[in-house]
Design a protein that fits this description.
The structure is a homotetramer.
Chain A lengths: L4 H12 L2 E3 L5 H4 L5 E4 L3 E9 L2 H12 L9 H10 L10 E9 H7 L6 E4 L20 E3 L7 E4 L2 H26 L9 H4 L8 E9 H11 L6 H17 L1 H12 L2 E3 L1 H11 L6 H4 L3 H11 L4
Helix pairs in contact in A: 3-4, 4-10, 9-10
Chain lengths: 304, 304, 304, 304
């Protein structure tokens, strides 16, 4: 699935040849358009199109609130206000379309975000390329012992070598057999829609993914989070950088209120109030379970 | 709710001053951008922004089907194929944002289309203008006698005059009282969120409405249909003209397969086959109910 | 729109006559089924059907996490964990269907929650009843002076009397004219779909509304909030009581983490840490705007 | 992923022990509850819960259309009317929850239906079982020569044997290595979220899937279609049988209007009219492309 010469030519033309438009343009994202950002070993994120900018968020909010928004002095302040109060609809007025190439096991997590538009490469229809994700040695992590869905230390030495060789060999053999089953050389050739079932989940697929900014922020909040799996987080990080250039005010508000902020429960909030009043709190006096208390302490702990 | 001088200035600037962009542009819709299309007596549709064009549909389909799409010779043919086979996701890759001013009773039908983004003018927050839809005399229709949700002949003479005067007087009085309740002149003034309840459903509201092309086609299929209420149909018709200029191939396919086509049931299809084989069919021999048979005959009847 | 005798009979039958089922049943909500809970002056909420209970949430989570969930000792703890970490899909496994009668201006706010199923009474098709919401005197609030979309003190004396009489008279006159326009007595009679435009936004409509528990919680978080308009908040409160009986563990987690909790921004969290370390903070040293600081102080202030 | 003894005990209890409920019950589906319907070699469909029945559709429609629906004499007729006129919201008032076990490549097609609720077994969190879909010999089809995404004749002899042995061996080896990488016996053990990438797309996963009847019909229209891939069609067929027992009137209308019916384009409809008027039509005179004409003839051709 590298770009066909036809696709490459089309992209080249789009990049070379700016067109005049009466639409709102966002200079910060224009530079990203049609440029592949490499992710993982064979993956990419490429901005195909976008609609709107920070002003489009403000413009939509002002339609809703009319003259009432005048007392907020500037766009950045209004955008912060909207983010703080979960007024999500103005953010839905911006839209982005991305071309993403990604391993199937990442695609399976990604697609759970339902409010988006997707056109994926069809392995029923066409033949997949011999491209598989093989983790870099520093990402070859052991199972976490405290978190069922987390990672622990990096594998080392022989164990790491063994894992990498299994992943490589199995991918290669699976692809050899995929080709052998498809081949019409001296035989009928298995249907593509069947042959694909032999390919492992680290094979690369690609899609066009189109989403509004509110739902993209929701995606980023979950997938750029330290608890997200590394292999999807690197995509979220790459997209985050694009968004920061596209809608800088919205991005700043998102970082402050969503990525860097914290949600306190009623119990946690009560606990903070008592601590501020000078009381010494413990898990026992907090009313929280051990797990909650551990997470609560994590939130309030000073960064090193 | 006429445009504020600020809004007008912003629009003027956008219209005057084309910006270069590396995005796909659709020349046919550029001319519509920011230009208010009048609808009903005080309503409007204005294109605020768009993403994609006919090529974007084709491009997305080719991502899905890969090399397999090559045998379809041209874009128009591929778009027809996609429409015919209900491959809806490539059409979702185009998006449009409209500013619409419309009576509340129309807005209430419109909002039932859930897959869209909306920012509506808030009468909780701001004060509505004295603008009401009063039907033109030729649209003042009697209740249909055959269809509970349809219209019959146009009202005439004294009855028409009486209806118009009731609508006008009640709207005026409701608005006078709205203002009187809101007034802080010598009194506290009722909350806006309460005072608005006195306004009738023909008062105008406005919103930004953003939707992908697939869902817009679904909207147009239902709302540009002859059975749709006239007051929403005129909006659908105005939008349809914009879409025809924006994505001419997709529009042509939509007209052929959705607007002008027909859905036959298994029973209806069987009936057509027997008619083509020379059999004389009646409601009784068709296996259809009277209502179905009447609709079936309507579909096959020659246009006058 | 009171219940027809047919509807009443149907409901009576359903209430009288329990049926055996192999589905999960939730005893706490069975008692609510088919019983109208009065809201406002003519409104109601009635539970028509439900699917699932607290165990259904746990069951779905255990499908996802498999044996990994065993270390959470009990259902309540697992449900708290899911709520705390925004694992929303298990809550989507419960569903509720409500019959709601409500003023049109409330319905217009309500319908903005898009992820739900709705069948509304059609005033295109049928004739609305003479039922209008007229606020009780204690809910007749003045416009807030600090919040554009809020309420201030209760109106008093002559002003209150004047508002009530305007609302009553205008509603009555609008309905008289609605009937006069529809009448086929000696005239053709205006189409229903047109005549309805004369009715003010406090006229009652009704619908069936079906929603999953995750989206219902989202609705309740926004609409049971003290900043929500009173007239929708009373519906949210009535529904909240039903939910508390239906899924008591999920409700308790929702109250702790959503309704009673607080969202801190990165800036706010940093500020709390410095306060806990003994620093005296002010708006100026906090890095927050005046509005944010006011809200931040509100969150940390002791309840009276 | 066979049922745990705990799950099996829970199901046993639910089946043994009917509970009284005041909800609407649908006797035809009660018998299916909690009973696994086998699909493919290791897959299953199991009805976990449902809401509503044919009467619930009628009830919702009558809320919308009020007294206006009285002229339709019976429930079956009203349901047919709703289906014929694409009045989809009453069908959304029924809901079903299924437990499905299915190969990953089928799950990837299935999940493209976005309007549904899903909880899938997490291979990040838990370990997948050694269960792979291996096609029965009669389903081992060659690539179609006319349709890029279709199947041709069944593979025979040596070629079939070779394919089956590749699929079996690769699955086995992939699973052996999956276990070897996970093993903590004398080594750290690779994280589950990484090890899963070695498993091919015919490995089985499972999920709870909850959907309303309208969206389920949309799923069935596409997936029970003869052009759908066999491996998803067998799931659609199994679900279709359950739906036929659950809501027999809605199912009959769906079969007549959706599954057995046909969509004619404006061009196709014009062509039918001319044929009925006695004209001999050909592809050239029809105005259709070759592909369209072939499909058009297919629709009108007598069944053998």
């Amino acid at each position: 699935m590298p770009l066909t010469s036809e696709q490459a030519a089309e992209i080249e033309k789009l990049r070379a040849d700016p067109q005049p438009t009466h639409r709102a343009t966002a200079p910060g994202i224009e530079a990203h358009l049609h440029t592949a950002i490499p992710v993982l070993d064979h993956g990419l994120v490429r901005v195909v199109d976008y609609m709107g900018d920070d002003s489009a968020i403000v413009q939509a909010a002002r339609v809703s609130y009319g003259a009432g928004t005048k007392h907020v002095q500037n766009d950045a302040g209004l955008i912060r206000y909207l983010m703080r109060h979960w007024h999500s609809t103005p953010f839905e007025m911006c839209e982005i379309k991305l071309h993403v190439k990604l391993p199937v096991f990442v695609a399976r997590q990604w697609i759970r975000h339902r409010t988006a538009n997707v056109n994926e490469y069809s392995a029923r229809y066409s033949i997949l390329d011999r491209e598989f994700y093989i983790p870099a040695p520093e990402n070859l992590a052991a199972q976490s012992e405290v978190n069922n869905q987390g990672r622990g230390a990096v594998l080392e030495g022989e164990e790491a070598a063994r894992v990498l060789s299994m992943l490589r060999d199995d991918a290669d053999r699976a692809y050899d057999h995929y080709e052998a089953m498809l081949s019409q050389d001296g035989q009928q050739g298995l249907a593509r829609e069947l042959a694909r079932m032999n390919l492992p989940a680290n094979v690369y697929t690609q899609w066009y993914w189109k989403v509004d900014l509110h739902n993209l922020f929701h995606f980023l909040r979950l997938r750029a989070d330290p608890h997200a799996q590394y292999e999807i987080r690197v995509y979220a990080d790459a997209i985050g950088k694009v968004v920061a250039d596209w809608v800088p005010h919205a991005w700043a508000a998102f970082e402050d209120y969503r990525m860097g902020g914290a949600q306190l429960s009623a119990t946690g909030l009560e606990c903070v109030k008592r601590m501020l009043a000078g009381e010494e709190m413990t898990q026992e006096t907090s009313g929280m379970s051990k797990g909650e208390w551990r997470e609560f302490e994590g939130v309030l702990r000073d960064p090193a």
